[in-house]
């Protein structure tokens, strides 16, 4: 979006500045055109740097998604709100490698965390006997330190883990 806007301004500036290099308005336009060009270059550099860091961070997991904890705890709604405020969401692994990356955070912290299962799910990793919703009070899903999924009460205080996807 930024590149489209900057490119439009650049084209407008070039068309308006054509033949007016000596008058004050033409000089101002030429200066703006140069600044827009430098900004476009800087934006490209930042995008490339960001993608390099993202690829490096996701390289070990084989996933394009990052799973991060703030080491806080909360019920499902609190975790959801925390993740949304941070620009992410509750983890929703779609592939085995993503589930492994998510589980590695849980294993490191030795804690369980909520996850969101889409319906229909593209991928599941239910533990034996799950989902069971025993007593009708287990309407959420949590993952254990091995990445196995279990039915859970939405009121449990579990580790806050958020998923971020940049691509």
TrEMBL record:
Q: Which GO terms describe its cellular component?
A: extracellular space
Question: One of this protein's GO BP terms?
Answer: ossification
Q: Which UniProt keywords apply?
A: Disulfide bond, Lectin, Phospholipase A2 inhibitor, Secreted, Signal
Going by the entry's taxonomy, the superkingdom of the source organism is recorded as Eukaryota
Keyword Endoplasmic reticulum listed: no
Is Translocase among the key words of this record? no
The protein's name is Phospholipase A2 inhibitor alpha-like protein
- Record organism: Pantherophis guttatus (Corn snake)
